[in-house]
Structures are given as structure tokens and as C-alpha cells.
Amino acid sequence: MNNFQYSRASDVADAIRLLAADPNAKLIAGGTNLIDLMKENVERPSRLIDISRLPLRDIEETADGGLRIGALVPNSDLAYHPLIEQRYPLLASAILAGASAQLRNMASVGGNLMQRTRCAYFYDTTTPCNKRSPGTGCSALDGLNRNHAILGTSSSCIATNPSDMSVALAALGALVHIAGSAGERTLALTDFHRLPDDKPHADTNLGSGEIITAIELPPRGFARNYSYLKIRDRLSYAFALVSVAAALELEGNAIIEARLALGGVAHKPWRSLEAEAALRGQAATPDHFGRAADLLLQGATARSHNGFKIELARRAVVRTLMQATSATPQSQAHKKIA
Amino acid sequence: MNAYVGTPTSRVDGRAKVTGAAKYAGEFAADRLLHGFVVEATIPRGRIVRLDSSDALKVKGVVDVLTHTHRPPLADKDEAWKDEVAPEKGSPFRPLYDDRIRFNGQPIALVVAEDWETAKFAATRIRVEYEQEAFATDLESERGTAAKVDQPHKPRGDAAAALTRAAVRHEADYVIPSEHHNPMELYATTAVWEGNGGLTVYDKTQGVQNVQKFLCGVFRKKPEDIRVISPYVGGAFGSGLRPQHQVVLATLGALALKRSVRVVLTRQQMYSLGYRPMTIEHVALGAKPDGTLDAVTHEAIAVTSRFEDFSRNDTGWGEQLYKSPNSRLSHKLVHLDLATPCDMRAPGAATGVCALECAMDELAVALKLDPIELRLKCYSDRDQSGDLPYTSKQLRECYARGAEAFGWARRNPAPRSMRDGKDLVGWGMATGVWEALQMPVAVRIVLTSNGHAEVSCAASDIGTGTYTIVAQVAADALGLPIENISVRLADSTLPQAPVEGGSWMAASSAHAVLGAAEDIRQELARLAKAMPGSPLADVDAATVTLVDGMIASNGRNGPALSIADVMRHSKLERIEKEKLNQFAEDKSHARNTHSAVFAEVKVDEELGVIRVTRVVSAVAAGRILNTKTGRSQIMGGVVWGIGMALHEETVMDHRFGRIMNANIAEYHIPVNADIHDIDVIFVDEPDDRINKLGVKGLGEIGIVGVPAAIANAVYHATGKRIRRFPITLDKLLE
Ligand SMILES: Cc1cc2nc3c(=O)[nH]c(=O)nc-3n(C[C@H](O)[C@H](O)[C@H](O)COP(=O)(O)OP(=O)(O)OC[C@H]3O[C@@H](n4cnc5c(N)ncnc54)[C@H](O)[C@@H]3O)c2cc1C
Ligand code: SF4
Questions:
Q1: Which domain holds residue A314?
Q2: pTM greater than 0.95 (yes/no)
Q3: Could you report the predicted ipTM of this complex, rounded to two decimals?
Q4: A120/B contact by beta carbon, under 8 A
Q5: Class of domain B279-437+587-733
């Protein structure tokens, strides 16, 4: 671990000022990802700016009937908040599918959006990795890539984004509120994370001096027909091989509106408007779900060890949509997949 | 006599453990304690050309950086480095000895500082230049270089010919990856500088006297200069049988700086210690049409380091268990640029029996026989390899009791025939077998006139429950309540004990306690009879027993005297007896524990997700000293077996010769959600031949057979035979 300076930000403006003053400074919230990476010498910030006491812990209703969630709301508080449980259970479920109770108690909304890939080479500073050390090469391309991306990859990086929460947020059409020295701006969650192209060191479109202040959920919560299904190598406490967030609005068996996002398959939560459009107006049947899955997975390519993910994702999409249709969402507490 | 032995007595150290009163090696305090952080090699093979610690030394708080060119002297003969458990062949690894890099993660420097964080930070300031050499770490690509290990085994009959003529034959490779122990407690040593070159070394180890002798050899110290203590061990599973790097490094630091030094390895660094070696198990079975075996051949090809030949008995189990006129075994090693493997729970058997029992299942399918029926057809009441009778063998009963508890009779033998909603249901079974070993152990008992006894021995309790069974046996033998027994273990100055391993400690320590307690009984009988007007004067000393604080005769019905009165009257505050117990050598019988393991899996047909929903393990292991700790021991073995079947794998990138999942987020073991019902049955197995109490030991048998039972259940559920462990869902979807 590196030696570093420590400052506690007194307000958001102070945090932005501190960030601007030191390009190698990093914000720290729950610390559950950043500290691990510092221990591995992957992140070597010269200064930690502690934002954990900033007043960004509120969950408020917005004028249009949505919700605004402060960037420092702990993952657990968010998952168990009555408004989230009632109106956005998909989000609650996705959060509870991630990490462990202890980690979720510490982890913040902002930190969760910013968590970095679990690619093993990224963590091992003795191996080449374009994301960690730009220009050194990508060890995963021809190495251990069983957990890696099948969509939106580039020849510089095939890492996945590990967040579960982001997958649900992508499906729900969430917005990310950002503040920086140039003022405030808002990005759609689906535009917040980026694909690796030839700059895999950048996970997101957040500017170097910017801070996430909140996320916003639109009014539509899909509280009846939804499910989050996470497939992994053990039944809990493991990152997704593939995960699916599905949300439907049904009239009888007809699909009025559909949302679908995949986790564990790309550098960002993977959503396809085309796949969702193909579902609209159709009957909620396995066949239609299979077709939507094919559209969502269009262009999927495998490396040596992750080919299984393509078929697995396709089947998982169908299963999740079936769970959503029957209003029997996947439980994150039961020791079984429904 | 049996108020405690055989009962579900709670752990006598339970309270100390849950309240934090129990201290572990890294928790002992010392004056002006220094902290060492290990710097590891980042290449698998080559030479250190330059190791520059100048920047590290500039860091405030750093006291020294020890390296192969800057350290106190270390022994230069292999004999000094060979501990009790070292492989016979080879030259043990010596930390900070020279410029050679023998494996990735090898310790190459120790940064010593006033606090741990400073040492850790300064470690990043060390610059190393290597001369890298060509290396190999992949067993499968190097399979062709495998070299045969000498084994006592003599081929029986002509297995090759028998295989050729076999009516039904099954032959396959089973591949089991390397696995790391990952005990909860990190490896740690606090070496306390006592002045004048003397050291008290608190170490995480399975054998304090082994470490003590080793340190004396390596550092050329007199036995009285080094004392090793390890009162509690937070799991070790074999990884603590040999002295580990950190004990050498902490001792080196203390001797160099004449101050106390603590070294705690990080979780990641524990992946450069020993491991269960990856093994390719080739099994070929030939059967007659009626299902009796005609040939068993088993070849194991396992990983070892370039500098030591580590091998265990992977291949002998089938030959021992199952009747077959022809058999041939061989064990081969592939030398790679890796650390030397070491024992891990049921070494050899966990892997070898896994392959054997999968192969037996495949043979049963080929023969259209029920898997239990096949095993009963080949059942042998004698150990086939030595043609010896067993001291006891209730394996038949294990099959019967296990099958009944599991409901095996309701199994439809056809694969993919049983369902539960979207899940395919599979039922599989396997046999487990392990040795019942026993070793010389000495125990000292000090009985005081207040009716309290202290029992002490150098043996370790690695979480298995040694404290508790020693207390139980002593309480029964001395006729005292268990609360009046205090047990001291794991101090090298206490009476002799070997490392705790191989499942031998329960039987060995229990009989050592009996031996010392017998001497106490004789002494008390003599004193009691000698008292003026003693009611026991005419009673034969050999027949008096210690019961309820009394020296009693004719059970509890004859004349008796209180122990306290006798001691007081004899003006004795204490009676102290130390006795070494040696088991008479008896080559006329085979000694083994057995089990029958039954597993139910549910496999999501579309998604390939596997759950082990039920396991029944029926164990025959002689007399069970403590049914509570014994049951926990078996359950732990079953959980580990589930991990071995479905989760555990040390993943290497052979281009770098590095382990890529050296942490417990990515190295998967089962979590609670993966564990469902586990039913442990102890089958009655009276054994008056093996030892006085009829005890065999339980440490290893719990895991043996479990991975095979699960793999066989997965086949039964899905019709797919996965022979490369762990069985992950991608292998089912392929
Ligand atoms: C063993 C383990 C298992 C896990 N399993 C899962 C899992 O299954 N699924 C899953 O989704 N996650 C998992 N996680 C990851 C966990 O969700 C994240 O570590 C957590 O969400 C990060 O939040 P934090 O507040 O602790 O972030 P920190 O560690 O404090 O920060 C992480 C990053 O975010 C930046 N940051 C923090 N707040 C802001 C802000 N407001 N604005 C801008 N930047 C900010 C920091 O600068 C830093 O770069 C796991 C973690 C561990 C250690
Ligand atoms: S996939 Fe990305 S993170 Fe992994 S090694 Fe390649 S560049 Fe690095």
C-alpha cells in the first residue's frame, strides 16, 4: 500500500475543490473496493478525500413522481427502504444479490457505480493489463477469460463491470447526477459506464474532477412484473457469470412495456432498445422471450473460455422474463433458483 | 468409568474461543515488538541479480531489510532443513538462503519496521532485478516428463492381460486441480527475544516440537534456547504440518535485530505455501459379466516442486478395498517450478478415492448394476493389498445404514429419470476409506490433593477437539468431574508428541492419558493400602478403580477411600506421573476407517446450476470418543467435499507461472447458501484389537468419497460425466 494524505470534505464544493487541487486524489466512500485495490497497489492515490460524512444520504420523491437517491446511501439502506421495496423491488433485489450483508452495509450508491472490474490481471500488478497500465497489453485476451465479456469488447480489454445494482438501474432507466467545478450535469445510467474501445483505463464518463451526488429513478417502477436473476459459481457471495434484470408491464398476457439488462457480459450493464421494442405488443411467451434474448445478444463473441456465457445468457433471459411474467421474482434469500 | 468418553461433551475450550480469551500466534504481545512484512518473488524461476532495499530503508520506522545477502547465518545442510514431515527425497526450500528463485511467491526479503503498515509500505519500495529462466508450471503440458516414484506396491497377477480379456471395462482420466487450504487464521509467528540468544516462538503450527527441532537445526541453537508455543490454531488442515516460511523469517528477524519480531502472512501470501497437488488419475477397471472385478489399475500423475518429491498414497485404495485377482498401481511425479505441495485433509485419499469411486460408478452403469451392489460384489473382508484381516471393518453396515437413511431403495437407476420442477434430481454414492494410525505420545498428569488434575502434552489442537477428548479421557480415568481437569497443550517443553495429522492424535493422546492415569491409580492404590487400618488393605491393588473422587473397590460396592483423604494422610500435595505410550507393533492386521457417502443433487436443467441438497455420511471409525465434536468433524469434511466437487480450484496462468485467484473472494469454497442437509451416522464398530479404547480417529474420513458421491449424483441427474473437477455449470452446458 502507498502512503497517502487524508482529507475530510466538509461539503460537495469542498470535495470538488480538493479533487481539482490534486489530480491523483481519490474520493473514498465505503472503501470496500478502493481499500482492497490500494492494498494490492493497483490504486495508489496521493490523497484520499473522505466524502462519507457529506449530507448525500437522503431518499426523496421528485416532482414527477420518481425518486432521488443520495450518492452516500448505503446499499443495505437502499435495498430495505420501504419506497424501494414497494415501488422499485427490482433494484432492491439486484442489490441483495451482490456481495455480502457486511459489505452492503458499508458500500455506497456512488461507490457501487464506480467499482472496478474483478479481472484477475487487473488486480495483479506483475501482469500486463491495459486498464491498469495503459499500453501494456491485455493478458485476458488469450489467458484466463472465463469470467470475461462477450459483448462490446475491444482488442484492448474484455473486462466486465461487476456491479449488480447498475444492471437494475440500467433497466429502470435511472439517471446519474454529477457535480464538478463546471457545475452540475446529468447522465443516463446507460451512458455513465463506457465500453473499453482503445481507452479501457476509463470505466465511466465521469470527469476527473467530478463527483456523483445522486441517482434518480423515473416514476415507472415495474413493481409487479420483474425479476433479477444472477447466475454464479456458488449460490451466494460470488460475482455474476451472467445476470439479468427484467421488468415488464403487462395487460393480460400482452406486453405493454419491457426492460431488459444483462450483467457480467460487458464493460457496462447491457441493454438493447431493439430487444425491448421487439417485445412490446407481443404475448409474454418463451418464444418471444427467446427472440428478444437473441436480439439482446446480437454480436456476442467469445474468447477461449467464456463461450458458455452466450447460451447461458440466452437461457437466463428467458427464465427471468418468465419469472417476471408470473410475478414470481427470483428470491435472493432462498437457496435455490426458481 | 465412562461418564464422558463416548458422550457429546461440549468443547472445553469453546468459551475461550468465542470470547476471544484464546490467543493465537499473531496475538501475543512483547516488549518493543517489531513487525516483518514478506516480499515475494514475482517470477517462477531464475535468479535475483540485484535487490535494492535502499529506498525501503529510508522510510521512517523501518529498522532493517533482511535478504539472502544480509541476514544471520542459516544452516547449509539439507538435514537441518528436513523437518519431521519433510519428503524423504529432496532439498527443502530455505527462505532468504540464496539468489535462486524456485517458485513464484517465494519470499525474497523481510522488511522489519516498528509497525506493520510501515513495513508493508516500505516493501513496495524494494526494487528487484531478476534473470528470468525458462519455466514450466502446467501439469498437463508436462505430463510426458512424469517420473515414477518408488512404492512398496507389488503388482498382483497380470492386470494388463485381465483388462484385455475383461467382459466389461471402464477406463478414464480424472483431473483434480490444485487446492489451497485457506484456514481462517492467517499464518503468523511472534518470536519473542528473551535475551542471550534465547527465543520463545509463538507459531501457528500443527507440531510445536517439530518446529522447535527444526529451528534449532536451521539456526544452530541448543534445545534450551528455543521454546515453541501454539496453544490455539485457527485451522490448518495439513498446511501447518511442516514449519512454514513465516516462522523462519520471524526467528531470523529476532536473531538479527535482537528484538521480538512478528510476521503475519497476508491471505494472498498464504498461496505460496503448500497445497494439494493437482493430479491426473488414470483408472482402468475390468470386470467379469457377473460384476466381480478382475483387474484394477490406477496411475496417478501429480505435481511436485523441482526440489522435493512430495507424494501420497493416491492409488492403493482400490486395491485394498475391492477384491480383484489382478492389480497394478503406479504413482508418477511431474517436477514443476512451483512450491512443494503438502498434505491437505485426507492427502492421497481425497483425490485417489474420488477417481476410484467415480470409476466404480461408471463401471456399475456399464454392468447395469446398482452402485452399492457392485461394491458388495467386490467387498473384501480382508485388506487385499497385504491379504490381512482388519481389526474391524463395518463398511457393509455403512452401506446399509446410509442407504436406508437416504432412501436409496427409491432410486430410479436411469439417468435424467428423477425430477423436481425445473431441476433434474440425481442420487449418487461412494465409498470412503482412511487409515487408522497411532503414534507414540507422552502425557504428564499432576493430581493435586484438592481433587484437580492438570494434563499436559506437546500435542496441538488444530480445532479438532484434542483439548476436549484429553479432558474426557482423563476425567473418566481419574474418576473426576471434567471441570476439575485442566489441559495444557502445544508447548515444546511439554511431554513428547508428534505433529497433529493423519487422524492419529485422538487415539494416540487418549491412550497416553490412560497410561499416565494408570500410574496415578497404582500410586494411589499403594498409598491407600498402606494407610493404617486401611479398609483397602486386603484388596488386590490391580482391582481398585478411581470413581467419583474415590479409590474404590469392587466397582463402587466394596470398601473405598477418598482420594483427597489418602493424599492428605500421605502428606502429598501432588502426585505427578509422566508416561510415554507406545503402541505394540502389530503387522498382522490392517487398520482402517470406512464410510459410505450418499448425495442428492438438484441441477437446473436449463441453467446448469448445481445444488447438493442432501448428504448422508455413514461412518465406521471404531469407538467415537465425543459424538458432538466427532459429528462436527465429519460435517466439516462433507462441506469440504462439496467444495472439492463443485468449487475449489487454484487457478494458474501458466504463461506467468502465477496463481491468479490468490484470495478468498475468487478462490471459491462453499458458502452457507451452498450447504443443505447433512446427516452423519456413526456405525457401531467395536474393536478390541486396535487399542484399548477401540478408537480409530476421524479427522480425514469425513471428506473421502464425498466429491465422488456428488459427481456420481450429477451424472445420475444429467447423464453427463464430468471428469474434470470442480464440476462448474459451464462444463454441464458444454
Ligand atoms: C468480497 C467482495 C464481494 C463483492 N461482491 C459483489 C457482488 O457480488 N456484486 C456487486 O455488485 N458488488 C460486489 N462487491 C463490490 C461492492 O459492491 C463495492 O465494493 C461497493 O459497492 C463499493 O462502494 P464503496 O462505497 O465502498 O466504494 P469505495 O471503495 O469507497 O469507492 C469505490 C470507487 O468509487 C469512487 N467513489 C465513491 N463514491 C463516489 C462518488 N460519490 N462520486 C464519485 N466517485 C465515487 C471512489 O473514488 C472509488 O474509486 C463486492 C466486494 C467485495 C469486497
Ligand atoms: S480484460 Fe481489461 S482489465 Fe483484464 S487484463 Fe485485459 S485490459 Fe486488463
A1: 225-325
A2: yes
A3: 0.97
A4: yes
A5: alpha beta
